User: Which sequence fits this backbone?
């Protein structure tokens, strides 16, 4: 068994040792004390963790193995009282059921196909940009059929990733209770802002996942601003059967600059897998002229095309611009109907202006990750020197999981949780101010009140520290759990990511 809830079941039959952790396991100077269900901490300054000592501690305090029947019985008993509840709160999943990512790095995975947005920025019309953006939305779900749980970000944790020539991404955990994350991405001709406040709902043998996300994509050269919210997801067969996920519901995409709009419909899986993965949508002008359709499957492909040549001509006529002419050979090809929804309809190649397709054998390794994600998680010495001390790439439990050192990962994860609770107690509710994002005030018409938006300054501060050969560490996070450099953990197999290959 694997995956998020399988980790929950394992947790029900597993209890960490109550033996007091040694002084070297405390990386916070706040003197946080451990509870009976977490690793104990004593007051001490940050010290380097020695992994041989970590292994010794785990061996001495390890519990005897529990057979599957006992684990299942205890797990079912624990989960029986959580029907309808949010499983993302109050449950600590053992590292054996986690992958070496965090929710912040998973947000960056959305941009594996950022080239679609760069291409959309060069389109002739806002309607084509809308259709291309819809294809990008579909492509963003192609990495979601992984069932190991990402680590929960700590308050103040960040993640940056620079893909030269394609985009640069920065995210921050802006709130701990309730959990909220925000990110800002810049690429050739586009910017993307994300605000996420995830929750879950346990249904017995399934769990619904609600991102409560709002995504805004801007094309500054044309003034187009697109806003949409991702659909919910459902993870099936958490306890019995083969685990699988589906995304379902409507995604309304609107261009606030032109009024053009449309809805992407993510089909709910029917009997015998009918309609599984299928996506289709129609997009309209501000005057409700149906112009573009998008069809595909979110796990493999998507296509955007004009619904017909006559509609394409009508749209350009309304813009007082001539449409791009078709060759005589192209004009003889069959066209689609004016309002198609069926994925089986023939696609006229001249009317297609954006396509996406997943490569074969795209996922590999223990965690079934694409090469893009493996590269994004590599922690080279140059990258380690450049990133902020709060960056998830430096997070010790993540690096230990990546190096397949689950014993060290368990110690680090427990200590981070202890230090996180100490930070929460010291800071109180609502007193934390994110370093790189600000909460939108109620009077701001450009965004919804309560959202976090990028305040700027991250990249200039990063470059300044790098130029002076100083560690990039904001004063506000000194002594906090999210200051990952204080743990001074450097696994031997971290840089090449041997486990992920």
Assistant:
């Amino acid at each position: 068994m694997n995956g998020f809830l399988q980790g929950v079941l394992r947790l029900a039959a597993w209890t960490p040792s109550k033996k007091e952790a040694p002084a070297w396991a405390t990386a916070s100077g706040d003197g946080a004390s451990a509870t009976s269900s977490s690793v104990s901490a004593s007051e001490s300054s940050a010290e380097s963790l020695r992994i041989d000592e970590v292994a010794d501690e785990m061996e001495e305090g390890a519990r005897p193995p529990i057979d599957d029947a006992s684990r299942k019985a205890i797990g079912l008993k624990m989960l029986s009282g959580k029907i309808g509840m949010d499983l993302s709160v109050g449950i600590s999943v053992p590292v054996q059921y986690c992958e070496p990512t965090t929710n912040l790095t998973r947000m960056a995975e959305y941009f594996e196909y950022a080239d679609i947005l760069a291409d959309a920025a060069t389109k002739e019309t806002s309607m084509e940009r809308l259709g291309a953006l819809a294809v990008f939305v579909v492509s963003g779900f192609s990495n979601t059929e992984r069932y190991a749980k990402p680590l929960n970000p700590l308050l103040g944790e960040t993640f940056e990733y620079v893909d030269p020539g394609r985009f640069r991404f920065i995210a921050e955990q802006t709130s701990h209770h309730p959990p909220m994350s925000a990110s800002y991405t810049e690429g050739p001709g586009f910017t993307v802002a994300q605000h996420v406040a995830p929750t879950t709902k346990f249904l017995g043998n399934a769990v619904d996942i609600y991102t409560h996300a709002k995504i805004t994509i801007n094309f500054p050269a044309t003034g187009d601003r697109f806003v949409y919210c991702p659909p919910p997801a459902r993870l099936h067969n958490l306890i019995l059967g083969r685990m699988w996920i589906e995304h379902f519901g409507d995604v309304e995409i609107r261009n606030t600059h032109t009024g053009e709009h449309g809805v992407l419909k993510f089909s709910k899986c029917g009997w015998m897998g009918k309609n599984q993965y299928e996506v289709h949508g129609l997009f309209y002008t501000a005057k409700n002229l149906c112009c573009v359709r998008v069809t595909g499957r979110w796990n493999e492909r998507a296509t955007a095309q004009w619904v017909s040549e006559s509609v394409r001509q009508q749209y350009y006529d309304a813009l007082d611009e001539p449409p791009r002419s078709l060759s005589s050979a192209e004009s003889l090809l069959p066209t689609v109907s004016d309002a198609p929804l069926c994925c089986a309809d023939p696609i006229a190649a001249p009317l297609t202006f954006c396509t996406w397709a997943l490569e074969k054998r795209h996922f590999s390794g223990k965690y079934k990750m694409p090469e893009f994600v493996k590269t994004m998680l590599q922690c080279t010495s140059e990258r380690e020197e450049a990133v902020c001390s709060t960056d998830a790439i430096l997070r010790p439990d993540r690096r230990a999981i990546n190096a397949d050192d689950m014993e060290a990962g368990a110690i680090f994860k427990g200590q981070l949780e202890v230090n996180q609770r100490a930070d929460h107690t010291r800071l109180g509710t609502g007193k934390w101010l994110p370093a790189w994002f600000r909460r939108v005030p109620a009077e701001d018409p450009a965004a919804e009140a309560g959202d976090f938006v990028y305040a700027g300054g991250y990249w200039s501060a990063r470059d300044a520290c790098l130029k002076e050969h100083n560690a990039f560490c904001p004063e506000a996070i000194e002594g906090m759990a999210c200051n990952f450099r204080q743990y001074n953990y450097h696994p031997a197999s971290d840089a090449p990511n041997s486990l992920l290959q």
